[in-house]
Amino acid sequence: MSSTILTARRVGIRAALRKNRAHAVRSYALPVNFKPEHDPQLGDYPDLPYVSRQRLPALGWDDRQMRRNFGDPLHERDEILSMWGPDAPTVPPSTALRHFIIAFSGIAAFGVFCKYTLVPARPAVPREYPFSGLVTELGGLEVNKAREESIEEEE
Predict the structure, then answer these.
(1) What is the pLDDT of residues 42-83, one digit of tens each?
(2) Phi/psi at 63 (5° precision)
(3) Within-domain flag for 123
(4) For the whole model, what pTM was predicted?
(5) Domain carrying residue 103
(6) How far is CA 59 from the centre of its chain?
(7) Cα separation of 70 and 62, whole Å?
């Protein structure tokens, strides 16, 4: 019984939060029936929808490349909405970033796999010398130390 009450209470709280969130967004956003003011420089030119020609089907036009019929009025921003305008992305940026990260991770994992599993071990053991690696016999640390400078040597 108590779990049913808690579930109903959670659902009610979620609904209230959604309602308040929508009200808060609506109060700071534009009104529902918002329409931009008519530009007085356009006069009686038709108000065409803002749709990119890249999204329209390729067949059924007089000019298939530009995807328009003869005599159709051009949009006010036709250079942006035409076939030669900026490309309209078909993949959302978040999805494209996720795909890029997955591809980069796959390439990095393949590189790590090649480095640590496909590279063979050394064919021989490195040499080991007695007496600390023959330091003194090969002219090691004792011989190569810098001599202390003295005033008597300069004269």
Answers:
(1) 888 888 888 888 888 889 999 988 899 999 999 888 888 888
(2) -110, 100
(3) no
(4) 0.41
(5) 91-118
(6) 34
(7) 6
